[in-house]
Amino acid sequence: MKKQWIILLGLATAVLLAFNYTPKEGDLKLPTGFKAKVFAENLGGVRHLAITPQGNVYVKLAKLNNGSGIVLLQDLNKDGKAEKRSSFGNYPGTGMFVKENYLYASSDEEIFRYELDAHGIVTNASQPQRIVTGLINRKQHASKSIVLDNGGNVYVNIGAYSNACQEKDRTNGSKGMSPCPILDSAAGIWQFNASKLNQTYADGKRYATGLRNVVGLDWNKENNQLFVMQHGRDQLFQLYPELYDAKQSAELPAETMYAVKQGDDCGWPYVYYDPFQKKKILAPEYGGDGKKEGGEKAIDPVVFFPGHMAPNGLLFYTGTIFPERYRNGAFIAFHGSWNRAHEKQKGYFVAFVPFKNGRPSGGWEIFADNFAGTDDIQSPAQALHRPCGLAQGPDGALYVSDDVKGTIYKITYTGK
Amino acid sequence: MTIYKTITVAAAFCLVSLMLSGQNRTELQASVGRGKIVYEQTCLACHQIDGSGVPNLTPPLIKTSFVLGDKGRLIDIVLKGLKGVEIDGESFDNPMPSFASLNDKQVADVLTYIRNSFSNKASGVRAEEVGRARKGK
Q1: Does A374 touch chain B (CB under 8 A)?
Q2: Structural domain for A276, as ranges
Q3: CATH number for the domain including A258?
Q4: Chain-chain contact of A381 with B49 (C-beta, under 8 angstroms)
Q5: How far is residue B27's CA from residue B128's CA, in Å, rounded to a whole number?
Q6: A32 at B interface, C-beta within 8 A
Q7: Three-point CA angle B51, B53, B59, nearest 5°
Q8: Inter-chain touch B95–A378, beta carbons under 8 Å
Q9: ipTM of the complex
Q10: How many structural domains comprise chain A?
């Protein structure tokens, strides 16, 4: 009986500690010489974020907070923490991007833009210009991430409202639809004019297809090319237990980075990328057996990562405060997996890939770790924080958003 | 009726109901045990090892009104699947497919398991109840 009380007391203490947990500087594990500060916290689920040349940080919320979906964070006394907050934007969403004197933001159906004044403050907070409207939103993979090129175009991800384009979504043994009708209006990247108002599908262009869902994307300025991170398909074992076991299902397929040109096809739903065979494998919904290859016309990834880690942010680092090897390289925020049963869950970190002349010049490595607060994550609800968005400050600092509690981390290099 | 007779009848009643509830308890435990196996094979990948689900994607099974409430509604979810329904104020993006391919006993067992796991405590579900729901009665 006494023992039970001790266990109960221990549990109560653990629960209290968990609720009182606030992230501390140094909680993140970083390479030597890097330091993380908590720039802001308790914002709610922060998706992507964007920073103006003046250092104003705009963050997009997944859910409205007191009726607002965008928060402006300002560090006026330059101590590395935002002491001023203001909110606007009456729609939730994911996309947030700053280009020249405009702030772009997306809901799950539309893209808006706001004019920025000389201080980097929006001038039309309650009356944004609507750039694109009527994008498909069927809940699954609904977030619309955005990025701009240097030619006045905005690129938006329109995710597939399906896992593998089965006749019955996520249903054991259900066949793949052929051709997959989802590809007409989703499962790709669409290009629109960044300054024309009220555009619909008819005004845009399907720039790349065969992408199940992209949340992290960025424009590489070294080779003037779009790069995207795909979330690979789920549940090979649950849907085809006669072909895959649980362990294979946890590790297949890879999460993939593509360098995309106009007209490229990345293969979904017909093929997935197997990181062990290093091949595009025909999906079981389309007659695959785990070995048959497919997707002759589809491009190969330029980098691949372990399965199901959910890449939600991609940023090419163009600052100068980080050491030489990080310059022009790619940072990727992995939101962390749910689909690796019965293995431990994976991800919940920011990775780095070195680049030279717009091509990867080395393998991937973990850059910032321990967002979850534990190494042993059995289910995603156990993670204290999950990395989602990435942005670079005018001083070259790397900002990382968390969509569990709404913490914004600011990572700098001190050399110590 | 003497007071002794009343006591004897009451005691007998108590004894029988104790025995019955003991028997029900053993049955419940057996169903929970079988249900755990069904859960691990069929449900765990999405609803997770601790029933916590996936934030914004898959509903948790921990003390929600859907799990602890009306058994008919819960049985229907397993048989027909679920999409786009708000659960206790939260919405979830991933659809749940129909698991009508499970037999009545498997559905009853797995629901009995989730109603008595992850700190839930609720009555078990019987195969006959699943059978009636499947026939639309």
Answers
A1: no
A2: 27-413
A3: 2.120.10.30
A4: no
A5: 15
A6: no
A7: 110
A8: no
A9: 0.85
A10: 1
